[in-house]
Amino acid sequence: MTENTPDGSENQPAEPLGTPPSEQGAPESKFIRALSAVEIAIGVVLFTLIFIGVMYQVLSRYFPAVGWVGAGELALMSMVALTFITTGYLVGRNGHIVIEVFDGVLAGRKLFVALRIISALIMVVTCLALAYEAYVKIDSEWARASAAIHVPLGLLYVFALIGFLSAAIQSAWKIPYANRPERKLDISEMDG
């Protein structure tokens, strides 16, 4: 049903209210929503640390007396940790880099579902291997500290462990829903 607006144009309804379950992406469990919320919260803190570190470096260029060598290290380590911690969130919402060569060719075919299942399984195995390596590195790198702010380097691998475990969980969650459209990264949901 259409309505006329005051300027004489017609208003078309945006979409039907009920989208069939077969056209929806994988539903989010409470655990995945909570995991995503934690990752975003940590990511916001790390992004803030990057901003503070970089702004402090800029300030110290104009006022050398307030210079602190740890500002650059803080920004750099926060950037690395941010990269790791948001891995699972991005994998779960297709915000990571994907090769979509076969998507157009195989769309609507059973091979497309098989391709998505195989790629999700590869992601699970790869992320679990990376999580294991991060776990090993936590112990071996904890004794080493950064030069300026003396943060144990093993702490970076804690962020890697969390991010890769989350990515493995998010990828495994996609497998039963491979025949449905995948969720897309929606920047507006990060607004909080």
Describe the structure.
The protein has 192 residues and is mostly helical. The protein has one domain. 59% of the residues lie in helices and 2% in strands. It contains 6 helices and 2 strands; from the N terminus they run E-E-H-H-H-H-H-H. The chain has helices at residues 30-62, 70-85, 87-92, 101-106, 110-141, 154-174, and strands at residues 3-4, 10-11. Strands 1-2 form a two-stranded antiparallel sheet. Helix 1 runs antiparallel to helix 2 (70-85) and helix 5 (110-141) packs antiparallel against helix 6. The longest helix is centred in the N-terminal third of the chain and has 33 residues, at 30-62. The protein is elongated. The two termini are 34 Å apart. The chain crosses the membrane at residues 40-59, 65-92, 113-135, 155-173. It holds the Pfam family DctQ. Residues 1-12 have a biased composition (Polar residues). This is TRAP transporter small permease subunit. Residues 1-26 are annotated as: Disordered.
Outline:
With 192 residues, the chain is an all-alpha fold. The chain has 6 helices and 2 strands.
Structurally, the number of domains stands at 1
Low-confidence stretches: 11-23
Strand content: under 5%
Largest beta sheet: strand ordering:
1-2
